[in-house]
Amino acid sequence: GCGDPPxxxxxxxxxxxxxxxxxxxxxxxxxxxxxxxxxxxxxxxRDRRAASFLLRGLxxxxxxxxxxxxxxxxxxxxSELATADxxxxxxxxxxxxxxxxxxDADRLPLRLALRREGGEWRVxxxxxxx
Length: 130
What we know:
The chain is of the alpha+beta class. It has helices spanning about 10-25, 30-35, 50-60, and strands at about 65-75, 80-95, 95-100, 105-115, 120-130.
């Protein structure tokens, strides 16, 4: 509820990332966009709107996708700020089964800067390399 104290930040962030992976698999762009802070900015000059377009394009590469997060490391800066480093793998599927060809997969090292906003963790910055 509204009056509940915040939970364990690492658990909350892990749950948020699980929700993001599930949303990506479902092609649920609206849920993913809701995880981006209104003042998002990254080193490529993208703001929240541009990051949303990037997500739309990435999800559009696959009709059906399996999303896997591995090597997750969360570092708390404070109770309101954190970073999360991980590897995100996107693998095309056909009839629910992975398509195991190199061209049908993306594996991205990803670092997120996170801030608690209104009790929810939001992404304020994302850095990755293809």
